[in-house]
Amino acid sequence: MKNILFTLIVLGCSSIFSQTEVETFFVDGVCGMCKDRIEKSCIKVKGIKMVNWNLDNRQIKVVYNTKKIDLPEIHSFIASIGHDTDMIKASEKSYNSLDECCKYRDETIVIDHKKKGINNN
User: Fold this and answer.
1) Phi/psi zone of residue 58: left (φ > 0), alpha (ψ -120 to 50 degrees), beta?
2) Within a domain: residue 10?
3) For the chain: N or C, fewer Cβ within 10 A?
4) What region holds the HMA domain (predicted)?
């Protein structure tokens, strides 16, 4: 009986862990406000367990439950808040809703951030 119970627990735990996926991909942005927006918005999405966006290399690491959300949905969500990913470009409407300092497609803003040492792109 103990062996059966132990086997059931082990099988249950392995199926729980297999639902979690970790992905790293490109998300465009230029400043700390971008980082806050990306991370705080993503963590509220059902199925996303952990998120960390690196300003220097513009890579996001996402830990998510594959039973609740998939990778294309995550890319789509990030694009909906105004940030391009390597899979989906944000719509003009979403991009234009960003604060002026977050307009990563505007070369003058990117250059200004570099001069101020805001990022290392």
Assistant:
1) left
2) no
3) N
4) 24-83
- For residue 22 the two structure tokens come to 């970790």
Tell me how far the alpha carbon of residue 60 is from its chain's centroid. 5
Average of per-residue pLDDT values in the chain: 89
pLDDT average, residue stretch 36-63: 98
- Interval 59-83: pLDDT, tens: 999 999 999 999 999 999 999 999 9
Task: Give the pLDDT of residue 121.
Answer: 45
Which residues, 6+ apart, have CB-to-CB distance to 37 below 8 Å? 29, 81, 82, 83, 98, 102
Average pLDDT over residues 102-109: 93
Q: Is 70 inside any structural domain?
A: yes
Quote the number of domains for the chain: 1
Cite the DSSP H helix spans in 1-121: 2-18, 32-43, 71-80, 92-96, 107-116
Beta pairing partners, 27: 85
**Total residue length of the chain:** 121
Question: In angstroms, what CA-CA distances link 31 with 38, 101, 112?
Answer: 11, 8, 11
